Amino acid sequence: MERLQKLIAQAGIASRRGAEQLILDGVVSVNGKVVRELGTKADPEKDHIKVRGKLINAKVAAKKDVYILVNKPKGYLSSAADPEGRKLVVDLVKGKGKLHPVGRLDYNSEGLIILTNDGKFTNYVASSKKIAKVYEVKVKGLPNNNAINKLRRGILLEDGFKTAPAEIKDLKPTDKNGWYEVTLHEGHNQQIRKMFDSVGHSVVKLRRTKIGEISDPYLKSGHSRELTAEEVKKLLG
């Protein structure tokens, strides 16, 4: 038995939230009876589930878990929808059904992000403190060692969030800009940008290069590929 909104989402008809609205709108029925109560469960192998009068059992049964690695360019929103009409990371992948991003990658940031239709996978990977994310960061100016050591130890941000200790490796700087490899085990909103802002050196460029053990230096910006079964297994531990 599964919640109806989950089954509707699995069938690719709507997102989980969109499925809840369909139930509230009274267009979902189980065994001929309209269901309006959120949280109602059904068995797709036994119950006849319809949305707007159409049976969805076959779509639920045919649902295949999809895991796509995308090299997100700057200027794409890490979301499945946007009321402002901005470009979406899900628009970069066609023909794989309804997908959503796993976690966030800022609009002005670039690099690796995973798209999937697997809600359990999303919840685990996005919230896991065991799956490190690695970033290459270019900052304005040349921070001194004291500033970088503050970030390594953890720092209280202006929004009240206390960052955990971070791994920060020095990369080759330019005359005017510092370059660093930053490894995080948490995902506070715009965390790296806020960290460097707090020591007076704003981020000029930010690129995620690794998610857990998953990296792909040959994946071009705007391109994607399916994760291998072994890569998915590694992320799930």
Features:
237 residues, 8-stranded mixed sheet, 7 helices, alpha+beta, 4-stranded antiparallel sheet, 23% helix
What is the arithmetic mean of pLDDT?
94
Main beta-sheet strand count, sense and barrel state: 8 strands, mixed
Topology order in helix (H) and strand (E) letters:
EHHEEEEEHEEEHEHEEHEEH
The tally of helices reads 7
What separation lies between the terminal Cα atoms?
26 Å
SS class: alpha+beta
User: What is the total tally of β strands?
Assistant: 14
- Unreliable runs: none
- Write down the Rg: 21 Å
Helix content: 10-25%
Q: Which geometry do the CA atoms define?
A: elongated
Structure explained in plain terms:
With 237 residues, the protein is an alpha+beta fold. The protein has helices at residues 4-10, 16-24, 57-62, 119-127, 145-153, 191-198, 229-235; strands spanning 2-3, 28-30, 33-34, 41-42, 49-51, 54-55, 67-72, 100-101, 110-116, 133-140, 167-171, 177-184, 203-211, 224-226. The strands form 3 sheets. Strands 7, 8, 9, 10, 11, 12, 13 and 14 form an 8-stranded mixed beta sheet that branches. Strands 3-2-5-6 form a 4-stranded antiparallel beta sheet, with no helix packed on it. Helix 1 crosses helix 2. The model has no long low-confidence stretch (mean pLDDT 94).
